[in-house]
Design a protein that fits this description.
By secondary structure, the chain is α+β, with helices and mostly antiparallel strands. It has a domain of 101 residues: Aminopeptidase (3-Layer(aba) Sandwich), CATH 3.40.630.30. The protein contains 4 helices and 7 strands; from the N terminus they run βααβββαβαββ. The chain binds coenzyme A (COA). Coenzyme A (COA) binds next to strand 4, helix 3 and helix 4.
Length: 150
Amino acid sequence: MKPAPLRFESLQASHIDAIMEIEKQVHSAPWSRQSFENEVGHKDGVFLVAFKGPAIVGYAGAWTIAEEAHVITVAVDPGQQRQGIGRRLVIELLERTKVKGAECATLEVRVSNEPAIALYESLDFISVGTRKKYYPDNREDALVMWKYSL
Ligand SMILES: CC(C)(COP(=O)(O)OP(=O)(O)OC[C@H]1O[C@@H](n2cnc3c(N)ncnc32)[C@H](O)[C@@H]1OP(=O)(O)O)[C@@H](O)C(=O)NCCC(=O)NCCS
């Protein structure tokens, strides 16, 4: 059977309960409800929610700052990973930041997060350095990645 197609919607307040369920499962330091609420309708933001049928299966957000897209979050429901959803979310996210004027993109990712680093490398992000002890919960370093052309 063919997998159900993905559909993307801009973040709405009604999505936040389902998003927080995913967020708590995938992150050691999950965002607060308020952090998600701040992204609803954010003037310089793009925040996409991925649906498979009626179910929310992932989300990704970015801010456009001048010509730069700053990817602020990407997550996929653990039961739905390794099906290409993360890649499609990031591709769609970057397309939409491009429409808002972004020409390049950057992000930080935990140095231990091999799945995410592999995902970003597959989309032509390159590692340009680290931010030492960037993550307050375990003082882990962040890898700084850039995609110089969208
Ligand atoms: C990172 C994450 C979003 C990837 O989502 P996903 O839907 O599973 O990713 P995809 O199926 O689109 O995979 C795309 C590519 O990423 C890489 N990748 C994804 N998961 C991987 C894993 N567990 N191990 C190694 N590489 C992996 C592969 O290169 C993969 O391509 P391939 O399947 O053709 O080999 C998901 O693992 C996640 O939600 N992790 C927790 C949250 C997180 O760490 N977010 C990033 C914070 S910066």
